[in-house]
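Q: Hi! First time asking for a complex rather than a single chain. Here are the components, and I think there are two in total. Is that enough to go on?
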Amino acid sequence: MTSKPTVRVERKYEGPVDDLWWLWTTKEGFESWWGPEGFRVQVNKLDLRVGGGLDYDMIATDPQQIAWMKQNNMPISHGTHGKFVEIVPMKRLGLSHMIDFIPGVEPYENTMVVEFVPEGKMVKMVVTVEEHSTPEWTQRAIAGFESQLTKVPGILAKRRGTH
Amino acid sequence: MVHMDAFQTLADPTRRQIVETLRAGEQQVNGIVEALDIHQSGVSRHLRLLLESGFVQVRPEGQMRLYSLRPEPFRELEAWVASYQQVWDARLTRFGAALEKRRARKKSAGPPAEKEDDSDE
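A: Yes, that's all I need. Here is the structure of the assembled complex.
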């Protein structure tokens, strides 16, 4: 376990925690922010119980992103399958994803845990993402994929500027 | 022809110990063997793997062969982690924006009597 690479990110948001929980655990909430950059998501199934499914389409929206995906033989829309593996309302949420969208890479599961820690009027949200399978090419593919995703500057600014 | 990536290389506790030992500076095999307290053949085998995967380099000095760390694979690891961090940073920023939006909408939809706060978009 400890030898598996994990990524931990955290940020503080204004409380109370129920709105944060809502953003993770409802169709409308999840669709309003889950990315990555250059994509929107459309939730088809959200069954909030342990073992319950979270299925959604990840749809590329950014022209640069679409071009890059086509060039790499990736469909611009992808059905993504996840499931809830742990639910402690308002405190802790475990979510696993099937990673099956990387060309030439065997599908594998990826689990993340979200913790909500109240700190006065704020809530600290801690996300820990763990890799379940780490063959070399998977790492490389993801690194390449993810860094491509972040190489689309201005999307965020653009998106924010429009509302 | 087995090529391990950085994570596989460091997945082995003995290899991690060798890397830790070399952080202090160049070492001969003997020095590493002493620090780790395992058999020389084991150390040699792991050292070879570390050489092959680019974590370690070796240079001769007289009769000695001195092993040291190479920075490249560590940069690679860092870059890999950073790429995740960036994705998540952007995600958490969007999360914050979505949270504000939700609260603004709840407020304008006539919230239950609650203490008012002055959070504004």
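A: Chain B is about 60% helix and 10% strand. Let me know if you'd like any chain examined more closely.
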